[in-house]
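Standup notes
- DV: blocked on the single-chain target, sequence here:
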Amino acid sequence: MIKTEVVIVGAGPAGLGCAALLKQMGIEEGELIVLEQGEIGETFLKWPESMRFITPSFPSNGYHQTDLNAITPDTSPAFSTGKEHLNGKEYAQYLNLVTQHYDIKVNTQTRLKSVVNLTDEEGFLLETDSLSIRCNFIIWAGGEFHTPNVNAFSGASLCIHNSEIQRWNEKEQGAYIVIGGYESGVDAAYNLANEGNKVTVLDFIGNNSDSYDPSMVLSPYTAERLANLSSLDQVELDEEFKVASVQKKAEQYVVTSTCGKVLTSRFPPINCTGFDINLGPVAELFDYQANGYPLVNKFDESSKVRNLFLAGSRLYHDPTLLCFIYKFRGRFFAPCSVIGEELALDMSIFRHYKKAGMILNDLNCCVEQECFC
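- DV (later): unblocked, structure below
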């Protein structure tokens, strides 16, 4: 039995971002453990080789403009990799450097099997493949890449989820159907078209000019890649085709829309409808909002169980979804402030984080901020 104060589940940007902040607050050796079922940056290591960050990295930290993909104010993926749009392996390399710099203890290849909430006073009991751990605080930063959405429409299991594809250049030549036209759907179309394939993108999101939220419109990087495809005449975008079902009949995959329109392909459609919300062994320790997102209080703490916090891309404060790194990193301070208060840690580092734009207290700014031109 190992006893510690804080367990962080997940060694991705959210988990390591919270861990790095706690280390800077002076949490002692042995009071913090990070559990990771794979390797550090496991999600990014599984990205398709051609996938890139849609947000650019630039080492502008010296001017108090933190790199958009950094997880601490004083690091920059652009500085360590020399790249503006990193691939998955490069970002995992950056996360490893952060881990080393802040001397964060990470237990890799450690799968969390169960979490028991003992009582508010006694904390939690965690069981992994090889460890039993007692702790007082948990930060869940498990991410979403391990739970692809295979229930978005009837017959989705017949499709290939884009997260299952490592190399687009290994796909057989022909005509493909891509279901889901947001960032990952356009990425799939771009890579397939570059390999000489014909691509039809269904449920294309387009760019909603009425929204200022980057979570609701295509990023400039993606929009530029899409524009570059127009000269190839190999990609068709269909905003009206809402997929109802996929069936396999003989040697064909049949995709039917909600209006009865039918498309066919000899290849399984590429499913780019994202990922499900799955909090693994802590799922029952959260209540949920009507849209399925976990219900948390102003400290990003479960409304159901004290001292259990949520960090990362599934963090939602109505109506703001903090899905990108540069969004959810502004909330690292929320669970760390509660933990810091309880453990009497030094929270003066928060001033540095605030100056760097990495403390997001007023979530209304995400809704009210406008771009005038």
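- Follow-up: The chain has a mean pLDDT of 91.
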